[in-house]
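Subject: sequence -> structure tokens, single chain

Hey, anyone have a minute? Need the predicted structure for the following. Not urgent.
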Amino acid sequence: MRTNYRTNATVQFRVLSDEQLEEIYSACLSVMERTGVKIFCDEALAVLEKAGAEVGDDHLVRIPNHLVKQALASAPSHIRVYDRNGKPAMALEDGKVHYGPGPTCPYLLDARTGERRPFVKQDAADTAKMCDALGNIDYVMSLGAISDVRANLADVHEFDAMVRETTKPIVTWSFGLDQLKDIYEMCAVVAGGERDFLRRPFAVFYAEPGSPLFHSREAMEKLMFCAGKRIPLIYTPCPLSGATAPATLAGVLVTGAAESLSGLVVSQLVREGAPFIIGGVVSVMDMAHGVLAYGAPELSLVSAAYSELARYLGMPMFSTGGCTDAKGVDQQAAIEGAISLLMAGLSGANLVHDVGYIESAMTGSHEMLVMCDEILGMVKHIVRGIEVDEEHLGLDVVDAVGPMGEFVSEEHTRRHFRSQFWMPRLMSRHRLHAWEAQGRPTLGDRVQARAVELLDTHEAERLSPEVQAKLDAVVARAEAREAARAGS
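Reply:
Had a minute. Here:
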């Protein structure tokens, strides 16, 4: 019997060595302690000052190293997320990768008409329904920012639309604390009560620090609320290398991580053990066109390095993939989407978002989402690696077949080919004459047809009429509150 035999549970790769990760982490500590971060929230400043941070009159906070290390020690390294019915759905821990869309694109590329138009509430519902149907999409975000409702309640309406059309976990954002509380109330309604939601959260909340190195009042208020309740929170910046972060890839890692980690300190000071997820959208500014480059190789490379840093620190990671700078679902979109999804999968990031983004995050696309679901089938098949044991080595069947035999008719083949071979749904492996007989459809043709089919036919599991009525009531109260404020 062999001793010290090691197996790989997944395919793995490395961007940075442990020594490089230590150097980046040390640089993050230096930024937080020497340069400091600005925090525009009096309650957060009070918490930090009480803990021993240096708080200046101009909102500048210098955070000593020991507070960061204490926060990392108390924050959980794994988080369990459930589906709408309270069943385990995602494990945010080392080596477990989950994929979903992103939020807040102002436009949608309509799969039926090909028109680029403003994103509306029905589009959020359609996105959730499509994610519910797609087997390789693990959680739901809306793809866009709703334009046909009261502007400062677009977040509440977005969650309302999504939670009715999927049982999968939801990642949800909010403008401010009031809207976050509205969404939290809706989560409790769906789960059957606050206690049930907090025991088995099916929604992960999202907030952002600013780059470079600041935290708005709204971001801190949301962070502190989630920490107090122990709601899983993604707290991730969008540092733009060459614009809101250094132009060096190591430099953008340092400032981005410092922005997340300074938020982590506040979270753990509010409540030790509060579930917290770091990461973000980490890319470069295209110096020729002035856009955040969503299909850039640097996005994939730095995101993979950031995932390694998160794992080094023992933190769950929120990353990016399945997105493109292309203006439609074309060859460029396929190339950029595939590379970013594979890199994210190989990196071991726990939540990979923005699947379905096109046009540098200005437009969401259901067709891109469908194409990426197909790509993800390949990625997940690659990342799972190769099982090596007596059955899979197949020595008995090799002996039985022998030289110049065939394996097609063997029971071993029938037993294993379905689990060992990835079978495409949309990509074509037909022989030429069969493909021509079908009308020579491109992948784009098949993706568009599949997107429309799902929009027209998929039905998600319905919430009860009683729960839907309670959701209506929460939205109505939020509308009345904001209408009163607008009239005051």
